[in-house]
Amino acid sequence: MAVIGELVRKAIDVYGFITSDPEPAKAQRAVLQSLLEKARLTAFGKKYSFSGILNSADVVRAFQESVPVHDYDKMYDEWWHYLQEGHQNVTWPGGQRYFALSSGTTSTSKSIPVTDDMLDSIRRSGLQQVASLKNFQLPADFFEKQIMMLGSSVSLIQKDDHEEGEISGISAANIPGWFRGYYKPGVEIASITDWDERVHRIAQEAPMWDIGSLSGIPSWIEMMLKEVISHNRVSTIHDLWPNLQVYTSGGVAFEPYRKSFESLLARPLTYIDTYLTSEGYLATQKRPDTTSMALILDNGIFFEFVPFTDANMDDDGRVKQDAQILSLEEAEENVDYVLLISTVSGAWRYMIGDTVMITDKVRSEIRITGRTKHFLNVVGEQLSVFQMNQAMQKMQSQFNVEIKEFVVAAVRKDGEYINKWMVGSNRDVDNIQFALSLDNELCETNKNYKVARSKSLHGVEAEVIPVDHFYRWSEDYKKLGGQTKIPRVMKEDDFRDFEQYVQKLR
Which residue intervals define the domain GH3 C-terminal in the entry (predicted)? Predict the structure, then answer.
């Protein structure tokens, strides 16, 4: 019996016993009250009369009536740019030590403030995730193993009075001292900015580590594992890390990667989804019998939900100021919502860009269903990324292929709109047959798509390409590794540029 591991597991059990899940509505009201009280003397708090809101009979309703909805551009142009210029007490008390550089799927670069209060919030959320491991029936010796956290470089960019980097790099640069003995690849290797060099060093050092869990975006974890396996001339990663038992995923849906991911293992892992963004740690999977994640309700983030309908969104994919907006208490299960957050980093009614669905109201569990700007609806298709992922899983089974990446756009052909798909696979298939099967699947599962196919959407084409083409494009035009994600939907001009890039690779 692993004595230390058993002690850790018992400590987690005790922590879970003395800390129960909060009552959702009460916890969220308390979070909002705390946010408003702490920020009431900031420039933002004075402009929107946080003191007056706090004196209202219904603080939530008064907050919603007084404070406008913000997307990144509005928040930055009106407020956050002052922080980068060195001003203090703008949207949150004090100055600014860190900015998270967005590594999402949009082309716009974003600099999002990360306060000390937010770093504390992320650490507390991490402890909640660790505490929930008691539900996954892991053996005691698991808690003695090392954790591979594959994120962005911890070598942050130094500016005049602050540092910049991706949120995973900022978080890793601020891990507690007691945790550093468990953390791999370690600060030295994690500081390497070049992705290929960093992965090569990991592959060299891998035999000396005893990894029990992995954490990171699926595509980059998979690329790292392949390099480690190849460099060390083994068959699976378990030949090197026999005690590997857990993979904590995040950033994108894991299911499209499962088949190829598990080909690198000797046995399946325990999979745990998390929802860590540049704006905060929002949710984590707390139990094994679901793929949904529980919102973290009592840790510095207030959530709001906007029904994802045409009436609530403008032509640029932004929430309208007169949109119907609900608290968690008012929101319903099995409805697509645009998520708004207010946080201890001074984001207020902030449109994070994700769409979510509440799958269990009692447990406050959600599933990410897509991105507001990665929702294909040029000619009425109304396709969400969640529906696209489900369709691709069906295509994997039907054509016996591994599909790790894909992108779609509505493009014009002979004056009419068609949907054109580029699909990253491990082998060639018949493009015409693939497009036909994909089209049929989407018609069966999405009535709006089926109607569009009979009217304004005049065709579907697909081109199956090596998945490496996606990663080469990411390296050349965005960056490789860390938290970088491949877009699922592109505008027509961007898609045409991507097509031309793929043609050059051939």
Answer: 387-492
